[in-house]
């Protein structure tokens, strides 16, 4: 009780001090501050300037090295160093240092230093050590400025709505902001944009605020702002151009797909129409596969497109085992069938995963382990 | 339920011939009420007919219907066979055969699970109906690859007996031919001396020979051999009409067996006592008989199942032994047969009806009867 009282007292006295300060401020204006500018450079500023200088020197050095390296590389590749572009550099590197590493980021690279070294914030305060940004002391000024901006927009929309209501003007129902095909900027991208670290809670706050803004009836007025922070969802992938049908001597339409792969199996598949649903695999019928699930694999694309009675399939397949071979042929059939069906079904096939190549292959066994991932039974000694 | 009741009511009131007519008109397309193979014609093709329980017990109590099919017949509580082209062809041919001429040999061949054994079963049923003496071997592989026991032959030095299997077969033969063996004309044409005290005399009824083999298992193999010879002689004399039906006939010519001598050396089929008898009855040099054989990949070891064609399966020796024969191909289900089979399964409530079911199953099974049965069977 006593402590609370004390705290209250303190607060009161602080307030009093503030009012005093404010009242005094206008009296002692420009002159002393200018003097201070000349003499007093805050410690933070000093440290910053040192760091900035160091960084600039470092970057200049790296840039120089990069330019020289690029010229060397161009000479090595026998090209003109003046017109040697970054794309050429990348090609040259992948040619000179071929790498089988799965992770692309782990492969050798040669990029301009600006891309390689993380960017730094410019000075956020003046020589006096007084921050430029009004939200500097939040620790994340750019991010909180963004939230602030969102609220500004919300207020703006609300004001506009009120005005409209006062004029009793109905909102045009066609002018609605449609956000179904979009998603908010993801956390990493937002971090990059703010040049600040953001935690999950803050990111959720950002999303909630944006949601709230878009839900407003007149949110279309701030469409540009909203769009700045949203990205279209995965666009309908342009499935590769569907090849034209070919016709044989009898006028039968057919399509051959080469290089159908799954695991270690490689196949080429010819689908022809009109047909009776006959399947030939390496000269045999469906009996080529003993297992029922392999046969089902082949049937799936045909049933899916409802063409199982209308097309013939001829497949040559080698390598791998039955499951891989069946998968390879399945992909070949689906890929070829695109030419026989309309765009809508192709899109359905894509969503069903029929047109997706399965690039997974067997993972190698590791030394010191029982298998690819499995470890030997652990024994204390 | 209602249907069953109505059928029973029908059966109670109407005379037999009209009842048959009613059932025929009421029954579905995939079934025929004609259960006598001799009346089956191409109009019955792809239809199922029911083998009466007593005939089934007589013919196939000791084998003759493949195991997996047998299990299915138990589930269905009836033994139904589909009337298919190969067996119809053979039956039609047998109908018009001149029995005074040398023996005709029919060889059923086809891919695994295409229905050779069931076609043979159909023909065997026909043989029973027409009063043939049936010399039916349910599965040669049982002897050559999965024999129960083997021992060196006493009567034929250098040969190996498979007595338990031979005795089993004698029981099978006896039950199958109960209708013919009552004929008093079937007498033995020569003396059989088994040991100092045991012998079967010339002029004794053939049943004595069989009984001896069954009771003295030690001599069963030799009895089978003797029986084959006697039947051949009797047929030549015109005492009986014989039908030889052997499933997996190529087993008699496939060199790798699992029959061993006492020194654990592999015995070729020609050294197994029973083989000689059945090779004898599949020769052309007798009459009043007909041979229906099947050649099957499964009768040989897994590594040698390269082709289903008779020439490959029989080998040079077997092919020359049978030459000339009439090959009869057993193929996968035609569309009509397939639909009929699915209808039957649905009628038996074995599969749930679903749209597009037939096409899908036809594709998955490749219309192979055995594969279809496997797919439709429970887990």
Automatic annotation (TrEMBL), chain A:
Gene3D superfamilies assigned: 3.30.230.10
GO cellular component: ribosome
Keyword Ribosomal protein on entry: yes
A Pfam family matched in the record: Ribosomal_S9
Entry-linked InterPro entries: Ribosomal_Su5_D2-typ_SF (IPR020568), Ribosomal_uS9 (IPR000754), Ribsml_uS5_D2-typ_fold_subgr (IPR014721)
Keyword S-adenosyl-L-methionine included in the entry's annotation: no
Family: Belongs to the universal ribosomal protein uS9 family.
Record keywords, A-Z: Ribonucleoprotein, Ribosomal protein
Domain of life: Eukaryota
Protein name per the record: 28S ribosomal protein S9, mitochondrial
UniProtKB/TrEMBL annotation, chain B:
Domain of life, per lineage: Eukaryota
Recorded GO CC terms: ribosome
Location within or outside the cell: Mitochondrion
Listed Pfam families: DAP3
Keywords for this protein: Mitochondrion, Ribonucleoprotein, Ribosomal protein, Transit peptide
InterPro entries: Ribosomal_mS29, Ribosomal_mS29_met
Protein family per UniProt: Belongs to the mitochondrion-specific ribosomal protein mS29 family.
Protein name per the record: Small ribosomal subunit protein mS29
Species: Nicrophorus vespilloides
């Amino acid at each position: 009780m006593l402590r609370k009282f004390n705290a209250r007292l303190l607060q009161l006295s602080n307030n009093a001090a503030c009012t005093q300060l404010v009242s005094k401020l206008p009296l002692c204006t420009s002159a002393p501050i200018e003097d201070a500018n000349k003499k007093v450079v805050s410690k933070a500023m000093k440290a910053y300037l040192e760091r900035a200088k160091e960084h600039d020197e470092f970057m200049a050095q790296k840039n120089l090295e990069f330019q020289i390296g690029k010229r060397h590389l161009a000479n090595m590749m026998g090209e003109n160093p003046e017109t040697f572009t970054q794309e050429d550099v990348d090609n040259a590197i992948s040619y000179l240092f071929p790498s089988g590493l799965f992770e692309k980021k782990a492969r050798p690279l040669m990029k301009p230093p600006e891309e390689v070294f993380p960017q730094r914030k410019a000075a956020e305060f003046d020589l006096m050590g007084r921050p430029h940004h009004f939200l500097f002391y939040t620790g994340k000024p750019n991010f909180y400025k963004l939230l602030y901006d969102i609220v500004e927009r919300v207020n703006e929309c609300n004001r506009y709505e009120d005005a409209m209501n006062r004029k009793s003007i109905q909102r045009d129902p066609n002018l609605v902001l449609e956000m179904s095909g979009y998603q908010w900027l993801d956390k990493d991208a937002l971090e990059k944009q703010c040049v600040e670290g953001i935690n999950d809670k803050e990111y959720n706050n950002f999303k909630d605020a944006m949601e709230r803004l878009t839900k407003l009836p007149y949110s279309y007025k701030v469409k540009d702002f909203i769009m700045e922070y949203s990205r279209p969802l995965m666009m309908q992938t342009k499935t590769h151009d569907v090849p034209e049908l070919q016709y044989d001597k009898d006028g039968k339409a057919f399509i051959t797909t080469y290089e159908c792969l799954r695991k270690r199996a490689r196949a080429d598949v010819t689908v022809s129409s009109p047909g009776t649903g006959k399947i030939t695999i390496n000269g045999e019928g469906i009996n080529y596969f003993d297992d029922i699930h392999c046969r089902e694999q082949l049937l799936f694309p045909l049933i899916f497109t409802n063409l199982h009675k209308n097309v013939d399939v001829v497949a040559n397949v080698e390598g791998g085992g039955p499951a891989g071979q069946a998968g390879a042929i399945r992909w070949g059939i689906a890929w070829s069938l695109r030419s026989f069906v309309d765009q809508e079904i192709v899109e359905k096939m894509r969503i069903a995963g029929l047109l997706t190549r399965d690039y997974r292959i067997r993972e190698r066994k590791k030394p010191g382990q029982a298998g690819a991932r499995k470890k030997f039974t652990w024994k204390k000694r | 339920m209602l249907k069953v009741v109505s059928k029973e009511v029908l059966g109670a009131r109407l005379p037999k011939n009209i009842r048959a007519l009613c059932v025929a008109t009421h029954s579905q397309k995939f079934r025929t009420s004609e259960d006598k193979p001799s009346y089956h014609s191409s109009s019955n093709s792809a239809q199922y007919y029911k083998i009466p329980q007593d005939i089934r017990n007589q013919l196939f109590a000791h084998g003759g219907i493949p195991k997996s099919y047998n299990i299915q017949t138990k589930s269905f509580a009836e033994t139904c066979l589909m009337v298919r082209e190969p067996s119809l062809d053979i039956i039609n041919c047998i109908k018009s055969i001149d029995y005074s001429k040398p023996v005709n040999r029919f060889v059923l061949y086809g891919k695994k699970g295409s229905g050779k054994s069931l076609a043979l079963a159909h023909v065997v049923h026909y043989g029973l109906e027409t009063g043939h003496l049936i010399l039916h071997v349910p599965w040669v592989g049982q002897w050559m690859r999965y024999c129960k026991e083997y021992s060196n032959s006493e009567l034929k030095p250098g040969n190996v007996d498979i007595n338990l299997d031979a005795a089993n077969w004698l029981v099978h033969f006896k039950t199958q031919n109960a209708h013919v063996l009552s004929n008093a004309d079937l007498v033995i044409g020569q003396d059989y001396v088994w040991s100092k005290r045991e012998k079967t005399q010339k002029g004794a009824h053939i049943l004595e020979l069989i009984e001896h083999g069954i009771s003295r298992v030690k001599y069963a193999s030799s009895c089978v051999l003797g029986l084959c010879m006697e039947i051949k002689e009797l047929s030549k004399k015109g005492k009986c009409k014989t039908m030889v039906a052997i499933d997996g006939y190529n087993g008699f010519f496939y060199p790798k067996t699992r029959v061993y001598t006492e020194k654990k050396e592999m015995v070729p089929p020609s050294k197994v006592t029973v083989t000689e008898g059945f090779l004898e009855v599949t020769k052309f040099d007798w009459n009043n008989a007909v041979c229906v054989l099947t050649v099957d990949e499964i009768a040989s070891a897994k590594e040698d199942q390269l082709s289903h064609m008779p020439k490959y399966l029989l080998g040079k020796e077997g092919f020359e032994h049978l030459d000339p024969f009439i090959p009869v191909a057993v193929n996968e289900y035609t569309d009509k047969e397939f639909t009929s089979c699915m209808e039957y399964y649905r009628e038996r409530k074995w599969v749930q009806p679903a749209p597009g079911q037939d096409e899908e199953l036809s594709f998955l099974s490749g219309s192979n009867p055995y594969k279809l049965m496997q797919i439709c069977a429970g887990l």
